[in-house]
Amino acid sequence: MGLRIDVDTLRGTRHGVPCLFEILKSRGIRASFFFSVGPDNMGRHLWRLVRPRFLLKMIRSNAASLYGWDILLRGVFWPGPMIGEKCGEIMRQAGKDGHEVGVHAWDHHKWQAKLDRMTPMQIRTEIDLSMHGLTKILGFEPSCSASAGWRCNEAVLDIKEAYSMQYHSDCRGEGIFRPVVSGITLTPQIPVTLPTYDELIGRKGVSDANYNDVLLDQVQTGKLNVLTIHAEVEGMAKSGLFEYFLDEAAGRGITFAPLGDLLPDVASIPRGRIADAELGGRDGLVCVQAAQ
Ligand SMILES: [Zn+2]
Questions:
Q1: Which of 35, 60, 85, 217 is buried most, with the most CB atoms less than 10 Å from its CB?
Q2: HEC assignment per residue over 185-222
Q3: Could you give the domains of the chain?
């Protein structure tokens, strides 16, 4: 199973990531960390409370206990702090511990909320800031990226080609593919195949008591399995649950790897394309793998 860790906030970087380092190290597991580098404006999500579906989700997942009020309010009343400036050492430690390190976002909130309305120039600026920011912190260019909130489009894919990266993980889907945009075959995509905690919990009878079993039952032998966890969730309030998950997975013979380790020979990767779709348990549209 490919294990991907999305880091969206200052709090998640500072507290969730070091906790995950310990959890993974004690089990000899390597994973892929995707960092948000610029301002933490995630509190602006509160404005989405006016949207009823998001409000339902906040109640269902008990967002305040999950994320903490300081995250929910961040960026609403004061400008968000720059995560990369404050947590560069933690980001470098991920690499030193043998994990794969990639770019998640510059301004996670802005990307998730406004991508549809951004011009190609504005998209390029966000990508350039995140790439240059993380390169400066790490001392080398990251080899992979994962768009925030699975918000992505063909313009994003096209702009990312300016960087020679090994792969991107911008969508939900079933198998590794190379998207074709304007007749050109681009860098491989490694889609996320499994649901996230906030998508599963509180729906169809799923609670913390049966969450790990429900998730593990969705693992498919002989196929691509990629799980995304969040430093803000599995690295903090749900770290105990995540430790049980890893141990239960080990009991079922499942091993974990950074996403890059799952890449086959590029010539053997099928072509495909991306599209937007609704996803159960998630507000708004997300980028998905579509048939070519
Ligand atoms: Zn994210």
A1: 35
A2: ECCCECCECCCCHHHHCCCCCCCHHHHHHHHHCCCCCC
A3: 2-290 (3.20.20.370)
